[in-house]
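Exam revision sheet. Question 4 asks you to relate a sequence to its structure. Input first:
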Amino acid sequence: MAKRTQNISNWAIIKDGVVVNVVLWDGNGDIFNNLIMYNLPEGSPVGVGYKAVKSDADGYEFSAPEENQL
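Answer key, structure tokens:
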């Protein structure tokens, strides 16, 4: 039986311009089809509470939450 290779990476779940969760996912399937998903680059510090602003057709710019918002 062949071994299936998966490229699992961190994905931000974005709701109302804020990251509400970060999950490990291979990007396949439609389990998140009603959510905004963004594949984070390796080593990204983005986490829950970060603001997400659409920057172009495929990307987002993120900013850390202010300390008193955590």
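Marking note for examiners. The chain has one domain: 9-69.
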